[in-house]
């Protein structure tokens, strides 16, 4: 059968995204065919597009989506046609009207969660989960620093961290985003162009610094993030919005009082069905309790994915964004 999908045939800017008609085979053993109803937009999509995270060309894009099961392949008994499901994972091909995907990685969507919320929130929500619950487990009373606090992951992580009892210091790029960050869990908000970000953080923490920094910006913020940490603090580097972090000497950690640095990847934490479903249970529980709200603030037609990428990279978006087939 034929469907439509975004494809890239070369790495580059948003202009390399093409909306094409492609052939889709019947689902194979262990697979299901999903008709997408909402597709999540994430910064990792831009890394695949530019080649920062290389993919074999030609390639699709997109790592999360929600939709309806249309058909299942041989041996599939965990889901059935008509089920509402959401997924995150590889290969990157969520920017499509329909696709086949491993049935045992499809997660049922709770009744109280819309398809848009599921698609906008799963990858980002699970990212917030592994940041706050695994990379540096936040404890009641901790102070943490969160870059891009009004963005997709930041807006969820700030709410969840506050729910866990942390004092959340957010970093944003505009006054509009500062206001949004305050409504989404940040106790304090700093501007990304502050001339002494570590000094401002220490002033807010009585001179001590924060227990952990969650940094998705990368090159431009790395050393400021290290300088904002308390002794034995943890630097969690999980993105490269400004480019990859340059090589550095481990001595930089020693002279800042025995710091730790980690560069985690979500899929190392959800590599089995059991771990995936356990993580999703925690995510949907905190959403269901009302402690974390998924805000879908931008919607684009799938055919306009290139414009969505431009706006994301220009920091014009807030909260979560979905592409609609």
Question: Would you kindly provide a written description of the structure presented here, covering whatever features stand out?
Answer:
The structure is a single chain. The protein is built from nine helices and 15 strands. Strands 3, 4, 5, 6, 7, 14 and 15 form a seven-stranded mixed β-sheet that branches. It has two domains: 143 residues, Quinone Oxidoreductase, Chain A, domain 1; 144 residues, NAD(P)-binding Rossmann-like Domain (Rossmann fold). The protein is α/β, with parallel strands linked by helices and 325 residues long. It is globular, with a radius of gyration of 20 Å. 29% of the residues lie in helices and 26% in strands. Helix 4 links the parallel strand 9 and strand 10. The two termini are 17 Å apart. The model has no long low-confidence stretch (mean pLDDT 96).
Fill in the CATH topology of the largest domain.
Rossmann fold
CATH class of the largest domain: Alpha Beta
Identify the overall geometry: globular
- Which architecture of the largest domain does the CATH hierarchy give at level 2? 3-Layer(aba) Sandwich
Q: Helices and strands, in N-to-C order?
A: EEEHEEEEHEHEHEHEHEHEHEHE
Please state the structural category. Answer: alpha/beta
Distance between the termini: 17 Å
Number of helices: 9
Give a summary of the structure in a few sentences.
This protein has helices at 43-50, 115-135, 152-163, 175-183, 197-204, 222-227, 251-254, 273-288, 305-313; strands spanning 2-7, 18-23, 31-40, 64-72, 84-88, 98-102, 107-108, 143-146, 167-172, 188-191, 210-215, 229-237, 260-262, 296-301, 320-324. The chain is an alpha/beta fold and 325 residues long. It folds into two domains: 2-113 and 294-324, Quinone Oxidoreductase, Chain A, domain 1; 123-266, Rossmann fold.
């Amino acid at each position: 059968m034929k469907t439509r999908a975004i494809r890239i045939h070369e790495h580059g800017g948003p202009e390399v995204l093409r909306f094409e008609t492609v052939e889709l085979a019947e689902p194979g053993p262990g697979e299901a065919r999903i008709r997408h109803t909402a597709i999540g937009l994430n910064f990792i999509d831009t890394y695949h597009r530019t080649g920062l995270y290389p993919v074999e060309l030609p390639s699709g894009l997109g790592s999360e989506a929600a939709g309806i099961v249309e058909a299942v392949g041989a041996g599939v008994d965990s889901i059935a046609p008509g089920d509402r499901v959401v997924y995150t994972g590889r290969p990157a091909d969520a920017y499509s009207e329909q696709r086949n995907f491993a049935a045992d990685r499809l997660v049922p969507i709770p009744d109280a969660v819309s398809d848009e919320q599921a698609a906008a929130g799963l990858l980002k929500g699970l990212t917030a989960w592994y940041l706050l619950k695994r990379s540096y487990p936040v404890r009641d009373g901790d102070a943490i620093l969160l870059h891009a606090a009004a963005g997709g992951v930041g807006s969820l992580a700030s709410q969840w961290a506050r729910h866990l009892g942390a004092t959340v210091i957010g970093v944003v790029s505009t006054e509009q985003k500062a206001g949004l960050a305050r409504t989404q869990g940040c106790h304090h908000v700093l501007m990304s162009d502050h001339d002494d970000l570590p000094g401002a953080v220490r002033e807010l923490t009585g001179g001590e610094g924060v227990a952990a920094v969650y940094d998705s910006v990368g090159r431009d913020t790395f050393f400021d993030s290290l300088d904002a940490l308390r002794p034995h603090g943890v630097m969690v580097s999980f993105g490269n919005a400004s480019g990859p972090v340059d090589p550095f000497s481990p001595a930089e950690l020693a002279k800042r009082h025995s710091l730790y640095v980690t560069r985690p990847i979500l899929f190392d934490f959800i590599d089995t069905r059991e771990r995936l479903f356990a993580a999703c249970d925690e995510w949907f529980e905190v959403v269901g309790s009302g402690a974390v709200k998924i805000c879908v603030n931008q919607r684009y037609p799938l055919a306009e994915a290139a414009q969505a990428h431009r706006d994301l990279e220009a920091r014009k978006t807030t909260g979560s964004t979905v592409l609609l087939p």
